[in-house]
């Protein structure tokens, strides 16, 4: 059954979700299941066996032939004179959907719900249950239920879209996915004052709802702009992309779209969840007048069993697909998602061997807001065959993207200030709007100090990264001196611990001595 306020929509009465036909072909008291077989409760012997997987249906030809074009063709076009066994293994929705369709053919009342309507609609299409055979056939009635009941309900639209995951390509071809996605997008972009919070858990017995209903928002409470995040995060990635794409078309603010993407990633990608919840909540708090981070979150995760614990151990192939899909829908505007989030996506992308073009796109996005990065964000392990502990080449590329971006922005708007006085760097508040390059210089020096402890770090990589920034970026060289001092100590310790080569004194071009000479020069 659907929610009570949706029982009659637009003047059309749908009989409380009970679907039946007015012309039963065989009088019956219903269906009976015995093991893996279904039987019609009637005195008339069955003359047709339908097999779907390991489930058998012992039925009668007339009720099916009178309403199914496909059954007509299969039986009458068959070369067998008395065809009484048919396999329908490719029927969308499987045995459950066929059971409902068969009951409809027999005139048995069928309860339409958000969880069975998509499978039944696809099965009706497969069985060709059109108006040409009987007025008010199954295609017409399921289509009416979808259009006038499901699409008018936020909860039902989510549940139907979720149920479409096992119905490809039928649900796609019948536009069920598109219509549900657009319905969800329209409601997510609607004025939140019109949202009825009672949709969560209403008419469903849920322990979590009983526990939380005391703290749920009242009808007059302000609705946080992120109220829809949790619900859409239960969707499979391709359907989530469809919803976000539809939301973009309707003009939702890019920072809200970015926050929804980060929330989805926190559910499905364990490696990006821990550090981004704070930034997501912080952003929502700013945009919702202080109700975001501490707001009550309604959602279908309280209703749909098994959804709250989403896939914690997704196969690498599925994680790769999620990353590639999320990168493709991140709004192009700077700050639509946090730099921390982008770097964690980038770390996973490198680890999972995501397509190089998307990795490059991610690197450019990080470069756009590189000054927001923290040292912990940049300590990305090296997943290539080189011997260094951290991916210094990656940080070098990120820095280059940042410098190119800065140069282009300075050319177009020299007076542009990137951050407010209260922005943080490594957890410490800064004073009067420091220049982005100065922030990055301090970050790079801190990074050099950290990676200098790696005995396998080549001199050239240390040197190139240290010299990448222009002199004007560093107002103080203390951070660079600390990095050089740390690197020299590691070099000296390496020399001390390694066997002393007999030719060392006569070979001033040895690598270790060259490192020491360069360090002395750059320190002067």
Tell me what you see in this structure.
Strands 4-5-7-6-8 form a five-stranded mixed beta sheet, covered by helices on one side. It has a two-stranded antiparallel sheet with strand order 1-2. It has 524 residues and is α+β, with helices and mostly antiparallel strands. The protein is built from 22 helices and eleven strands.
Can I get a quick summary?
The chain is α+β, with helices and mostly antiparallel strands. The protein is 48% helix and 6% strand.
Blueprint of the fold:
Blueprint: E1 8-9, E2 12-13, E3 18-19, E4 31-34, E5 37-40, E6 48-52, E7 55-59, H1 61-65, H2 69-76, E8 85-87, H3 94-105, E9 110-111, H4 117-126, H5 138-148, H6 154-163, H7 170-173, H8 176-189, H9 207-212, H10 229-232, H11 237-249, H12 254-268, H13 273-287, H14 316-329, H15 339-351, H16 356-368, H17 375-378, H18 392-412, E10 424-425, E11 428-429, H19 436-451, H20 459-466, H21 478-497, H22 511-523
Parallel strand pairs: 5-7, 6-8
Antiparallel strand pairs: 1-2, 3-9, 4-5, 6-7, 10-11
